[in-house]
Amino acid sequence: MTTRIITGAVLAVLAVVLVIHGGPIYFFVMLALALIGLNEFYRLVKRYRPLPLAGFIAVAVMMYMAWFRTPFGLLGAIALSVLLVAILGLLIGPKHGVSVRMAVTLLGLLYMGLGFSALLLLRRLDIGAAAVLTVVFGTWAGDTMAYFTGKYFGATQMAPRLSPKKTWEGFAGGAIGTVLLVVFVGLYTDLGPADSLALGAVIAVVGPLGDLFESLVKRDVQIKDSGRGLPGHGGVLDRFDALMWSSVAAYFLLTVVLKF
C-alpha cells in the first residue's frame, strides 16, 4: 500500500506540472504513454497474434492529428488505420485466424489511440489545462474512493465474474468522490457548478466501465497486471484504463453538449 501511495503521489505531481506546461513535451509524453500502453495491450492478447507495427503507426498518426491538426484529421487517421490493418490482412492472406488478428489490432489502437488523443484534444480547448486536470483527478479520485469504500464497506459484488473485489458500495463511494472533487475544482475554473456536476457524473459512470473493460481482457487471457512499470499500480494500462474511457466521454460532453 505504501508503494502504491508513493507512486500515486509522484504521478499526481508530474501530471500537474506536465498538463500546466503543455507544449511539445505534453504531446511527446502522452505519445510515449500511449505506445507503452498499446504494447502492454498487445502483449496481453499475444495469443491472438495482433499486428503491433500497424497499431504503433496508427496511434502515432492519430495523436499527431489530434495535437497538430483537427478532430476531423483524427477521424481521417482512424479511417487510414482501418485501411492499413486491412491491407496487412490482405498481405497475410486467407489463413486461419487472420480476422481475429486484424480485430485485436484494431481494438488496441482504437483503445489507446482514442483515449490519449482525447487527452490531447482536451488540452487544446480554451479551458484546456483545467479540463485535463479535472478529468484526470476526477477519474483517479473515483478509483481511490472506490477502493477504500469497497475495502471497508463493500458487501455486494458488482461484477463477480470480471472483478470479484469490485462492489456496488465501492462504486457508489467512487462516484460520490468523483462528483465532489470535480464540482469543487469547477468552483475555481470556467466550468461552473452545473457543468462540473454533469462532467463529474459522466466520469463517475464511464470511468469504472473502462476499468471493467480492462478486467474483461485480463480475465480472458488470465493475466493479473498489464505490466510492472508503475510500482504498486502495475502497468500503464492498469493505471490509465479508466482514464482512457472518461477522457473520450469528457471531450464529447464538453465540446458537443456544453459547447466549450
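That was protein one. Protein two is written in the same sequence-then-structure order:
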Amino acid sequence: MGHWEEGLRGDFWLRVGVSLLCGFIVGAERQVRGKPVGIRTSILICLGTMTYVQLAQLPGNTSEHTARVLGQIISGIGFLGGGVILTQGGLVFGVTSAAVVWMLAAIGAAIGLDHYGVAFFTCIIAVGVLLGVEKLETAMKGLRKGVHAPVSSKIMSD
C-alpha cells in the first residue's frame, strides 16, 4: 500500500459515513427549524473534525509537534471562518462558507502531511455535500424554512 493510501483503509470510509450521517441528522433538525447551522454546515463540521483527528493519528504524524501544529491550524482557521459570518436584517449569512473554509484547512493539512488520498476524497465528499444538500433542499420544501428559505432580497449567499 502506498504512503498516500495509508489513510484510506476501510475504517476511514466508515468514519466518513458516520460523519455524514451524524452531521445530516443534527443538521436536518436545525434546518427544518430554520436555524443558521443546517445540513451542509453540520456535515462539514463533523467531516472536518474527523479529518483533523485522523490526520494526527496517521503513520508519521504521531509526534506531539504534529498535533500542536494541527491544533493551531484549527484555531486560526476558526477565527478566519468567523470573519465571514455576517448578520443582516436578523438573518445570518456565511455559516456554510465558514465551514467550507474550515474544511479547506483540513484538506490542506492532509496535503501538507502527504496524505493525498485523504485530501482528494475529503474534497470530493465536501463538494458532494454542498451540491447534494442543495438538490435535497430543492426537492424537499420543508428544508427551506427560516434562514434556509430563498429570499429574493438576499444580498449574500452561503
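The helical segments are 10-32, 39-57, 64-82, 95-112, 116-139. Keep this in mind for the problem set.
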